[in-house]
Amino acid sequence: MSVVTQSSSSVSRGGGSGNLYDVLELILDRGLVIDAFVRVSLVGIEILKVDARIVVASVDTYLRFAEACNRLDLEAGRKAPSQLTDLVGEATESGAKGKSKGVLAGAAEAISETIHGGDREGDEEKSSSGRSGSSSSRRTASRRKED
Amino acid sequence: MPTYVYGIAGKEHPLRVEGLKGVGEPARELRVLTSGQLGVVVSDAPEGLRAKRRDVMAHQGVLEHLLSEGPVLPMRFGLVAPDDEQTIASVREREQQYTDRLAELDGCREYNVKVSRDEDDLLRQVLAEVPEARRLNELARERPGDRRLKMELGELAAQQAQARQQKDAARIMDALTPAAVRTREAPATGGTFLNVSFLVDRKQAAAFAEAVHGEAERCGDAYAFRTSGPLPPYSFV
Description:
The complex is a heterodimer. Chain A is built from six helices and three strands; from the N terminus they run E-H-H-E-H-H-H-H-E. Chain A is mainly α. Chain A has a domain at 2-33 and 77-138. Chain B has helices spanning 53-67, 84-93, 95-105, 119-129, 131-142, 147-176, 205-219; strands spanning 3-10, 30-35, 38-44, 72-74, 79-81, 108-117, 182-185, 192-201, 223-231. In chain B, the strands form two sheets. In chain B, strands 1, 2, 3, 4 and 5 form a five-stranded antiparallel β-sheet that branches. In chain B, strands 7-8-6-9 form a four-stranded antiparallel β-sheet. In chain B, helix 4 (119-129) crosses helix 5 (131-142), helix 4 (119-129) packs across helix 6 and helix 5 (131-142) runs antiparallel to helix 6. The interface between A and B is large, with 81 and 93 residues. Strand 1 of chain A pairs parallel with strand 9 (223-231) of chain B, so a sheet runs across the interface. Chain A: Belongs to the gas vesicle GvpA family.
């Protein structure tokens, strides 16, 4: 598991494009509209949306899935716990509970951080940012995926 | 001079906009127009404005700031009125509707949650649970040139993968929805299988975050949860 709770503050500060990307659809596609007003051109942005609509049920997807299945080493799944061991070591020290709290506090308090935020691009799935309100926590218990 | 519109707030909002940077290069100064009981935050609209990164972020930044001081209806990016007078007149026409919506959204913010799962992990589960997929997979390995076999395997794997993702998505929704006032799902894109916005009351923010964390914990290592928020309630206006 990786959890990233990020305030949108980084968006307003020019932080990672990962952040902006995650909220872009909301800013461009939601929000209140008044019919009598015009909207600026979103040429270029709409291309993103079309790309995103790539259909799952396509020949390309099937071939890709088949190749992925062929490549899969079914035994490889069992390696996961050993990979986890490293993480457990690191996480036990800081304490899983403490980390979860970081995430909670982050969401609850992020309003006040609007000024200080700032994530780096590409961080979102890997590591926690330096910001107090944002935290990324790795799974610490060796719970199995079958759970 | 065309008017760029950021958001609408009630009369109880302090609407302090001095020093805030609007869209455009250089950043346009913000103004507040009064339309009946409502305040409309606007700036001059720069010529040739497009959805450039800095402008989108300026729009978002202005709303973030306003939201920190009271409820605001966030406009969609890029809304341009012919001039101030018409802005005021258009907002006035729907004054009651906007006032009601502001009251509904008071104290609430949007959280967007995107969930993805490692594809190998998903396919591994499919192969472990579906004997026919395993059989086809072994055959396809023996006959790497057999395209029809590959298609058959791929189609089955894709269907089975999608069914599992839908189940996962439903379970995650069940866990997160109780802490939210409203929800709005969007098509999952870019490797995610769930993309949903939650309207959450500030008093429930901690409970919501806890629910997200609990789900992420339950789902395990192969899943990634990306939560953005608190955001202006773009999806709920």
